[in-house]
Write a structure and sequence with these properties.
Elements lengths: L1 H22 L5 E7 L2 E8 L1 H20 L5 H26 L5 H30 L19 H25 L6 H23 L10 H17 L1
Antiparallel strand pairs: 1-2
Helix pairs in contact: 1-2, 1-7, 2-3, 2-7, 3-4, 3-6, 4-5, 5-6, 6-7
């Protein structure tokens, strides 16, 4: 299954690259920084090619994990590291599509998202052994299992929702000042958000699973890549 997903990632990366080249998709927008009291454009981001890179990276992660599948702990760690980078960059791109261009804000959104996902990896490392370890018959379950808000996954949810709140604020603000984002950007934002939430729920309920995110990262990256191409191209 891992190799199949890796193939789907890589095939899409190739097709998306060809489509972007044929339609001459423009760059998404600028990244700005406040220097000397003025906002200065310091870089230009091409969301289409960035999405192609994400697809290729996702394929490489799945291909790598397929080679270490018997080592569940290492497989789980590599899986979550891969998703942390995919989701962090995805939020960076979605934030820019929604009109957030300031570098320090974009980097903070990336860091918060990637860090929240790594808490899910920590959650698996802490919770899974307690689920597997035998306990005396008279030992309460709560003594063996980290529950509720004590779980790192609960903190992941609290931290991970912050970037999406800022993106929502940017969407609402754009409408208030008469510069609303396009319908395509709104749809991409909501779809990727929904899939990201689904990854969190799957990680919460399956902390011991080396493939806890399942096919959801592939679906989220696919939605982002083709959504960006349709919205911007």
């Amino acid at each position: 299954m891992r190799l199949v997903r890796a193939g789907l990632y890589l095939v899409q990366a190739i097709i998306a690259g060809v489509v972007i080249t044929l339609i001459g998709m423009p760059a998404t927008g600028e990244v700005t920084a406040r220097l000397g009291g003025a906002d200065v454009a310091i870089a230009t981001v091409h969301a289409g090619w960035a999405a192609v890179v994400l697809l290729a990276f996702g394929g490489l992660v799945d291909a790598a994990v397929a080679r270490i599948e018997p080592l569940a702990t290492r497989a789980r760690l590599v899986t979550w590291i891969g998703w942390s980078q995919l989701s962090g960059v995805a939020v960076f791109l979605i934030a820019q599509l929604n009109g957030i261009t300031e570098l320090t804000t974009l980097v903070a959104l990336y860091a918060l998202t990637a860090g929240a996902v790594m808490l899910l990896a920590l959650d698996g490392a802490l919770v899974a052994p307690r689920l597997d370890d035998p306990a005396p018959a008279d030992a309460p379950t709560a003594s063996r299992v980290i529950r509720g808000l004590r779980r790192p996954a609960a903190l992941a949810a609290v931290i991970g929702i912050v970037p999406w709140g800022l993106i929502a604020f940017a969407q609402i603000g754009g409408g208030l000042v008469g510069d609303p984002v396009g319908l395509g950007t709104r749809i991409v934002t909501l779809v990727v958000l929904a899939l990201s939430i689904a990854v969190w729920f799957r990680g919460w309920f399956r902390p011991a699973d080396a493939d806890a995110p399942g096919i959801l990262p592939l679906l989220a990256t696919t939605a982002l890549a083709w959504g960006v191409i349709l919205a911007v191209g």
